[in-house]
Amino acid sequence: MTASAVLKAAAAAGVSVTIDGDKLVLRADSQPDAAVVDLIREHKPQIAHLLRQAGWSETDWQALFDERAGIMEYDGGYSRGEAEQRATDEIMQVRRNRTENGFPRRPEKHRGHRGHRKDG
């Protein structure tokens, strides 16, 4: 199985995989299936190589999250908690979308709020 296929299987199982230094970082809304984790562990060197080509670290993802949450709170009129939850949902979707075609693409940073204002 290729690294791309493993990332695609992980995304299908709701698991987002990124790299931070030499560590793979897994994110999921719930406890990932052990078989998926084992597959990722088995192909870690190939996955790490592929993800390094994508160029986004955990620090980059955190910066994007902070930006999205801030925009939603201050421009979108959401409470801090609502803004953080919406930003989390959005970032998780972006991370999942990165592997839809079997290769993790570097997402474009958003310019402005794409959602709807809370008040209309």
Notes on the protein architecture:
The chain has 5 helices and 2 strands; from the N terminus they run H-E-E-H-H-H-H. The protein has 120 residues and is mostly helical. Helix 1 runs antiparallel to helix 2 (34-42), helix 1 (3-12) packs across helix 3 (44-54) and helix 4 (58-74) crosses helix 5 (80-98). The longest helix has 19 residues, at 80-98. The termini are far apart. Mean pLDDT is 78; it is low at 110-114.
How far is the first residue's CA from the last residue's CA? Answer: 48 Å
Note the main sheet. Answer: 2 strands, antiparallel
In sequence order, what are the helices and strands, one letter per element? HEEHHHH
Beta percentage is 5-15%
Strand order across the biggest sheet? 1-2
Structural class by SSE content: mainly alpha
Low-confidence stretches: 110-114
Using only CA atoms, what is the Rg? Answer: 15 Å
Kindly state the number of beta strands.
Answer: 2
Q: Rough shape?
A: elongated
Number of domains as seen in the coordinates: 1
Whole-number mean pLDDT: 78
Please sum up the structure shown.
The protein has one domain. By secondary structure, it is mainly α. Helix 1 crosses helix 3 and helix 4 packs across helix 5.
Keywords:
120 residues; mainly alpha; two-stranded antiparallel ribbon; 5 helices; 55% helix; 10% strand
Explain the layout of strands and helices.
Layout: H1 3-12, E1 15-20, E2 23-28, H2 34-42, H3 44-54, H4 58-74, H5 80-98
Antiparallel strand pairs: 1-2
Helix pairs in contact: 1-2, 1-3, 4-5
